[in-house]
Amino acid sequence: MSIAKDGGKAVKPANFPKDMPLYPKATYSSYTVSQDAGSSYGADTSDSQEVVMAWFKTEVLKAGWTIDAEVSGHMLSLSKGDLLGSVNCEPLGGQNRISFSEIPKSMMSQEDLDALQGSKDLLKQMYPDGQPAN
Predict the structure, then answer these.
(1) In the chain, what is the greatest distance between 2 CA atoms, to the nearest angstrom?
(2) Cα 66-99-113 angle, rounded to 5 deg
(3) What does the domain layout of the chain look like in residue ranges?
(4) Closest-CA residue to 21 (of 13, 12, 34, 30)
(5) CATH for the stretch 4-126
C-alpha cells in the first residue's frame, strides 16, 4: 500500500493516523501504521529544510501536537496526549528526506521516558530560542 496523490496533494490511506500531517510536495517512500507500536513515514522533497520545517511547525499545531523541542531547524520533538512524535528533515541525495513518527507513551519504558524528558530539558537550556548560536 502507498500514499497516493490526488491533484498534487498527498492522500492518506484509510488506516493512516489523521493527526500526522503529510507534506504536500513530497514523494512518499515508506509508511507503517500500528495501533500498538506507533506509525511513521518517510518522504523526499526538493524543498529546502527551512520551507519544510516551517510548514510542519504550522501543521503539527493545527493537528493538536505540542512542539516540545526544536533542534537546529531540522528536527521537532512533539507530544499529544499519550503520543510522542518527531519530525526530521535531513539532506539525502540532492533532496531532503522527511521522516515523521509517532509512538504511544505506553509502549516506552519509564526509563526511556525519563531519558527523553532529560534530553528535552537539556535542549531547551542549550537552545532557548530553538536554534544554536552561529
Answers:
(1) 45
(2) 50
(3) 4-126
(4) 12
(5) 3.30.310
